[in-house]
Design brief:
There is one protein chain. The protein is an alpha+beta fold and 444 residues long. Among the domains are: 3-98 and 207-263 and 357-424, Aminohydrolase, N-terminal nucleophile (Ntn) domain (Glutamine Phosphoribosylpyrophosphate, subunit 1, domain 1), CATH 3.60.20; 270-344, no CATH class. Helices cover 50% and strands 19% of the residues. It has 12 helices and 14 strands. A 5-stranded antiparallel beta sheet has the order 12-1-2-13-14, covered by helices on one side. Strands 5-6-9-10-11 form a 5-stranded antiparallel beta sheet. The longest helix has 40 residues, at 309-348. It is globular and about 85 Å long. The two termini are 49 Å apart.
Length: 444
């Protein structure tokens, strides 16, 4: 995992990311503090990229993909960051030599992540509830909640999923039997199968996915913006990649703070409360209010109402409605007292202050992981960059795996690349050129 953040106001966008990566295997895992997650998308134009989650796309490192894209793109630019994102996604669809065996291996990796996560939950529940009948019931409820919490928007249509099942169905059966066969519960196995197929077909992503954030300015942009994509790689013959969110600074929306990956500490800082604790409080208040109302009914209500399921359901609905009104009021207070003042101040910060805030928020997540019992999945040096319209991509803090004084040729090569626009120095701009590459008609 990782912690990354983008902070934007009208002047610039700051990007910051830690350097920790965890590499796992059947024998355990190792962590390293030297991974690059922030990249120039262009050595000339004001565009940058961050990656998190899976460090590879179809077993190609993201660092290699981004740097080859940057080299081949040369001096070409696009009118907006949205178009920069479109071009990078299009490039991914053409990148590498990806055959049927590679696609099958990726399907295996993506699908394996789901029952592996479920298996860990099974063992946790069985430690809490030794009785097999009760624990299996709790496990089924957990799996059903996983299914219900998926984004229910279809990504692949039914015809595509029919072909997918015909090609990879035996692989999925084998994975479920291997990971969950010990539970000896046919209902759970069916639920797990349903969960996996919905994870593939719907617009949700596995724990094996990668996140891609592209931020900066297009040629026609006055203010910065960002686009965030998520991808599981090729699932069958298609790359499952989705535009998750966009954020744009405008004259009315003068700033924004967008955390990625592990963002609970940023939410604490912004909202004044831990999001997990807030969810627990709400659930506990809902349960207490419902139980109290039903307790009053049982003690003082008419006899015909005490056993009425309709009356009890009406009480639950009324409590939920009342609590929703309470939630709205709390949210308004939270924005007014905590979030809005910070966002408002960010809009006024000079651009040299944005990187300091971005670095501090990533460091806060790293510190929390370091001094708690949580796995230390955030850490290492923090890379920080600032992208502005006129100055383009500027490194504020950047780790190097080599000493600059021993490698003078590196600086000379970088200077030549910037002066000549990379491999495609003849391509000066894409202002009047659509993504297909043909010149736009003149005179209109």
């Amino acid at each position: 995992m990782t912690a990354e953040i983008a902070i934007m106001n009208k002047s610039a966008v700051a990007l910051a990311a830690d350097s920790k990566v965890t590499i796992g295997s059947v024998l355990g895992g190792k962590t390293f503090d030297t991974v690059d997650k922030v990249f120039m998308l262009s050595k000339i134009h004001p565009a940058g990229l961050m990656v998190f989650g899976n460090a590879e796309f179809m077993r190609y490192p993201w660092e290699t993909i981004v740097k080859i894209y940057r080299s081949q793109n040369g001096a070409r630019s696009y009118k907006s960051i949205h178009l920069w994102g479109n071009d990078f996604v299009s490039y991914l669809s053409r990148f590498g030599e990806i055959d049927a065996n590679e696609r099958e291996q990726n399907v295996f990796s993506v699908i394996s992540s789901a029952p592996a996560d479920l298996r860990r939950k099974v063992w946790a529940i069985r430690r809490q509830i030794p009785n097999p009948t009760e624990s299996n019931l709790r496990i089924r409820e957990h799996t059903e909640s996983l299914i219900n919490n998926l984004d229910q928007t279809a990504f692949f249509n039914s015809a595509y999923m029919k072909r997918f099942k015909a090609t990879y169905g035996s692989i999925i059966d084998g994975i479920i039997k291997e990971d969950l066969g010990f539970v000896n519960d046919n209902t759970l196995n069916s639920l797990a199968m349903d969960y996996i197929y919905k994870l593939i077909s719907l617009s949700s992503f596995s724990s094996f996915s990668s996140g891609i954030v592209i931020a900066g300015f297009g040629d026609d942009d006055i203010f910065p913006s960002l686009v965030y994509y998520e991808t599981d790689g090729y699932l069958g013959i298609k790359n499952k990649i989705k535009l998750v969110t966009e954020a744009t600074v405008t004259r009315d929306n003068a700033s924004c703070i967008v955390p990625f990956a592990q963002h609970e500490m940023v939410e604490r800082f912004m909202d004044g409360i831990d999001p997990e604790y807030a969810a627990f409080l709400r659930a506990r208040v809902l349960k207490s209010m419902t139980e109290n109302c039903i307790g009053v009914l049982d003690k003082y209500g008419a006899e015909e109402h005490k056993t009425s399921s309709k009356v009890r359901e009406s009480i639950r609905i009324a409590v939920e409605k009342s609590l929703s009104s309470h939630d709205d009021e709390c949210e308004r207070f939270q924005r007014r007292r905590y979030s809005s003042p910070i966002v408002s101040m960010v809009s006024l910060l000079p651009k040299d202050e944005l990187p300091n805030l971005a670095e501090s928020l990533v460091a806060l997540t790293s510190l929390k992981r370091h001094v708690s019992h949580d796995e230390e999945t955030v850490g290492g040096p923090i890379d920080v960059a600032l992208i502005s319209k006129n100055d383009s991509f500027i490194w504020i803090k950047r780790k190097h795996y080599f000493r600059a004084e021993l490698n003078p040729h590196f600086g000379a090569k970088l200077k030549r690349d910037i002066e000549h626009g990379g491999e495609n120095a003849n391509v000066k701009s894409n202002r009047s050129r659509p993504l297909g590459g043909k010149e736009a008609p003149k005179g209109g």
